From TrEMBL:
Gene3D superfamilies: Tetratricopeptide repeat domain (1.25.40.10). The keyword Metal-binding does not apply. Keywords: Signal. Pfam families: Sel1. It comes from the Bacteria. This is Sel1 repeat family protein. Residues 1-27 form the signal peptide.
């Protein structure tokens, strides 16, 4: 297996070469699984293997025993377990049960990217690897204050491009498209962005649906205006918007709906009905 330096990854394959694979499916989020008794209030026994350490850590977190859970996950992460590394990375990135520490999160995500960049996209570890590349890209977009991780839009693009192309990750496809919409570190190219948005939107990535809808509704350089189809994607995105961070999605939909003609609204419903039949 080749090792990759996540801080200096160059594009390894052409952006047009897509190996579509399942994206992050069942996240290691600490929710009860088939092997966890419902309502468990305490963790009993001690782990003997790496997999047992992961299960022990997840159950400890569910039971409110954060310190035990982190210790158990850290042991598994130190042995190279991608799921444990991903969970700890997310905890430090979001300050979930621990003090937020972006450098620790960055290091865990880097370990996953370095060890699993070449994994077959169908393997269980691939979903963690894809998400790790997206997380690293997000860090490079803004940098981490008082650290060696500086803002570097080119590296961010490389991270997103690899996960988008090799793993077919819809989140990476969306973030890559945003760079080409905004011209951040790359020449602005709405048509190229729309191709990536289309791939992610078809997989249900609601942010991509919103961005694609916005492009189609208004039209852009090289993209003819397709108001009804744009409004269809915006409707899907609005329905999936879940929190305050998604206000831009709702605002984009409301602006388009207000400015759409009655015929465009009616045609958007037709497109929506046709789309829903294809995803059932």
């Amino acid at each position: 297996m080749r090792m990759y330096d996540a801080s200096g990854l160059r594009p390894l394959i052409l952006l047009f070469t897509l190996v579509l694979a399942p994206s992050l499916a069942s996240a290691f989020d600490g929710t009860p699984g088939a092997d966890a008794p419902a309502g468990a209030a305490a963790v009993v026994g001690k782990p003997r293997t790496i997999e047992e350490s992961v299960r022990f850590g997840a159950q400890a977190l569910r039971s409110g025993q954060t310190e035990q859970g982190i210790d158990s996950l850290r042991y598994a992460a130190d042995q190279g377990h991608a799921g444990a590394q991903w969970k700890l990375g997310r905890m430090y990135a979001e300050g979930e049960g621990v003090e937020r520490n972006d450098i620790k999160a960055f290091d865990y995500f880097s370990q996953i990217a370095n060890m699993h960049a070449d994994d077959n996209p169908a393997t269980p570890e691939a979903r963690f690897a894809a998400d790790a590349f997206v997380a690293l890209g997000a860090y490079y977009l803004v940098g981490i204050p008082n650290s060696k991780v500086r803002r570097d839009a080119t590296r961010a693009r490389d991270m997103f491009a690899y996960a988008a192309s090799y793993f077919g990750d819809p989140g990476a496809q969306y973030h890559l498209a945003r760079l080409y919409i905004d011209g951040d570190g790359v020449d602005r190219d709405p048509r190229f962005a729309a191709r990536w948005l289309g791939l992610a939107a078809q997989k249900g990535q609601y942010q991509a649906q919103a961005a694609l809808g916005g492009l189609l509704f208004k039209g852009d350089d090289g993209i003819p205006r397709q108001a009804a189809r744009g409004l269809m994607w915006l409707t899907l995105a609005r329905d999936a918007a879940a929190g305050p961070q998604d206000k831009w999605v709702v605002d984009l939909y409301e602006d388009a709906f207000t400015n759409a003609s009655s015929d465009e609204r009616a045609m958007a419903l037709v497109y929506l009905e046709q789309y829903m039949k294809t995803v059932r």
